[in-house]
Amino acid sequence: MKILPRSVSENARTYAVKVLLYNIIHMELLPGSAVSENELSEALSLSRTPVREALIELSRINLVEILPQRGSYITKIDYELVEESRFMRLALENAVLNLVCQNIPRSYAEALEKNLQNQRNAQAQKDHDTFLDLDNEFHKLIFEAANKTWSYQIVKEQMVHFDRLRTLSAKSDIGKHSLQDHEDIFYAITRQDSELAQMLMTRHLTRHRTEKEKLLERYPDYFVV
């Protein structure tokens, strides 16, 4: 498990949630695996109370399952939840793309271009965690370019189930199209072609359907059946 730095403004529960969420999304805590309050408390240098509160909070969004007298477990990936989160994200992001294609501020166009270069570097180095972070930043920049930062935060909170699938796909080298998809979307934005941009985004956010069988075959124990 990766231990993240704690900011001075974070209370113990918030910090525990942040670390656990990161490790669940980045597949450091694998679907179906048991998690121990005692071991987490020791690893995070926290008492058991904030760790327990963090696990309860994550159980409310179906990332942790708490079984009385048996312990806590990271939930398996549920394709129904993945599909629902993708549905909401696609609806919002295509609406945002329509705004961005009308007039993207130069500073955001440059930021997206720099982000893509960093994605290329991360992919060349097979740095999957950095690539996923840059992937998220790419989409965040699109929302920010349309002055829809609050909308992005809503999408981000609902994307945790989809993000686990994206991580698994990237780390297993099944999802090899993300960088090219981003390049194509950026091209459409610079061309101010909203129809093309939305078509490309729809393709980008539905690739998990074509990858589903490969992932299920390779990682059958990670999924709800």
What does the model show?
The protein has helices at residues 12-25, 37-44, 48-59, 79-102, 106-124, 128-145, 149-158, 160-171, 178-190, 194-204, 207-218; strands spanning 34-35, 64-67, 71-74. The model has no long low-confidence stretch (mean pLDDT 94). It is mostly helical. Helix 1 (12-25) crosses helix 3 (48-59) and helix 4 (79-102) runs antiparallel to helix 10. It is built from eleven helices and three strands.
Average pLDDT confidence is 94
Number of strands: 3
The number of helical runs is: 11
- Strand arrangement within the widest β-sheet reads 1-3-2
How large is the share of residues in beta strands?
Answer: under 5%
Q: What is the CA-atom radius of gyration, in angstroms?
A: 18 Å
How far apart lie the N and C ends? Answer: 26 Å
Question: Structural class of the secondary elements?
Answer: mainly alpha
- Main pleated sheet: 3 strands, antiparallel
Low-confidence stretches: none
Tell me the series of helices and strands, N- to C-terminal.
Answer: HEHHEEHHHHHHHH
Helix content: 55-70%
Shape: globular
State the gist of this model.
The chain is mainly alpha-helical and 225 residues long. Helices cover 68% and strands 4% of the residues.
Brief descriptors of the model:
68% helix, globular, three-stranded antiparallel sheet, 225 residues, mainly alpha
